[in-house]
Amino acid sequence: MSHISKGVRKDMNIGESMSKAFEQAMEREFQLHLILFTELTPFFISKFDRDLKSNANTVRDFIRNMIRERRETTKATISS
Question: Where are the extended beta strands (E) located within 1-80?
Answer without folding.
Answer: 2-5, 8-11
